[in-house]
Amino acid sequence: MNRKWILTGAGLLLMVLGTGAGTGKLLAAPQDAAAAPPKYTLAEYNAEQAVEKEQNPQNKIKLADDFVKQYPNSTLMPYIYRAYYLTNYALKNYAGTMDYADRQIALGEKIDTQGR
Question: Can you give the pTM of this predicted structure?
Answer without folding.
Answer: 0.64
